[in-house]
Design a protein that fits this description.
This protein is of the alpha+beta class. The protein has two domains: 1-30; 40-483, Cytochrome P450 (Cytochrome p450, Orthogonal Bundle), CATH 1.10.630. Helix content is 48%, strand content 8%. The chain contains 15 helices and eleven strands. The chain has helices at 3-29, 53-64, 114-127, 133-151, 161-177, 186-201, 205-212, 214-217, 223-247, 257-268, 278-309, 311-324, 340-353, 386-389, 432-449; strands spanning 67-72, 75-80, 91-92, 362-363, 368-370, 373-375, 380-383, 450-454, 467-468, 472-473, 479-483. The strands form four sheets. The chain has a five-stranded mixed sheet with strand order 1-2-7-4-3, with helices on one face. It has a two-stranded antiparallel ribbon with strand order 5-6. Helix 4 packs antiparallel against helix 5 and helix 6 packs across helix 9.
Amino acid sequence: MTALGVTVALLVWVTALLCTFLWKQVYSIRKLPPGPFPLPIVGNLFQLELSDVPKSFTRLAERLGQVFTLHLGSNRVVVLHGYQHKKEFSGRGEYHTYRAHKDQGTTFNNSPTRRETQRASLTILRDFGMGKEGNEARIQREIPFVVEALRETQGQPFDPTLVVGCAACNVIADILFRKRFDYGDRTCLRLQTLLNENLYLVSTPWLLLQNNFASLFNYLPGSHRKAMKNVSELKDYALARLKEHQESLAPSCPRDFSDRLLMEMEKEKYKAEPGYTLGNIASTVADLFFAGTVTTSATLRYGLLVLLKHPEVEEKLHEEIDRVIGPHRIPSIKDKLEMPYMDAVVHEIQRFINFLPSNMNHEATEDTVFRGYIIPKGAILIPTLDSLLFDNQEFPDPDKFKPEHFLDEKGNFKYSDYFKALSAGRRVCVGEGLAHMELFLFFTAILQHFNLKSLIDPKDIDLTPIVNGFASIPPNYKLCLLPRSHA
């Protein structure tokens, strides 16, 4: 064959491949929600601003509507933008960074064991006081320790990350392991490093790429390897605590969450396919430990920065705390009834910081007809939370921090059904009630004892997150805490 013949044959072959690709794409997306036409291999990657994917979703929703399709690598991604779409789909989309938890635990589990594991976890957490008086007592026991740790800063500039992180860590560690760490404990500080590092890494553009081009990233170096190593280390820590519990387990007197799950495992050990294995329990415990620590600690850290920016809000909070609680009594949840402004501020902090803007990825577990479209089995669903939290009809001036978003004309607390700060739909965050309780009590206790002092003019404080992907990561900063004269 001549050189010309080879060239023509090659062109025909490439054209045939391209036509086949285009035909398959047109056929496969014709019943999907609308979206930009994907390029080979990369899909719609170039339609996204990788440094701020949630903002990209908002812009695409303005052009395409509240339900639209993107293709990222081999993944079909259907974005659900708006209130009316938040109660659909229960599958969990895969996160390759958490491969060590694949088909185990509660957060990243899509296996047949997921429902039973989640059901048992919720039952056990309720038995151990999740959202009730038991958890209030846990948080109240921790308050004197966190106040003392903050007092030891002696009014000097400090980064609050580790202190508020240890406070949140101790609450969830008590539930899971009946364990409490000193604030300078090396293990606790190591765990804080792992948790905060991974929250940051999974929110970066690099990890977004890894999650959608996993087969390529298996051969590449980068921060995704560090994140996966951290996940394994956290799971190993949970596994070590579980093995300790096994050695002293007394079925007639379970001490904590770990004991109860180990008892479930004992009940099933003779089954042909037991749903509870030590690996599954370790993943469950690690999932809860991660979520129960980083959600509260990051919100506390971001919230203090927001209050530094708004000293007029802090002043009103001091007035309410002094009137309702006074200088010495430990705050309680029942104080919320007489503290509508604090309740509104805590809700507005969570709304404003937009901690999980795009929620956790969901997955269609079967072909589903949805709003007249066909969502194929295996498609990734992203039910965005920021589309609720920044709805300008529900929250006028949504880009501004305004506690009035949660107050009526008489100054009473006003709940909004658009307030979905941590999850929405069927797979809700199992620790959401605990997080809300911690935030109210810890914020109240800190402001009961201290005045916040910024190192720069409040007008110059920048509240922009340093990374906005899986989570909105607050800027690094220092502040001073000045003991209040009556405290």
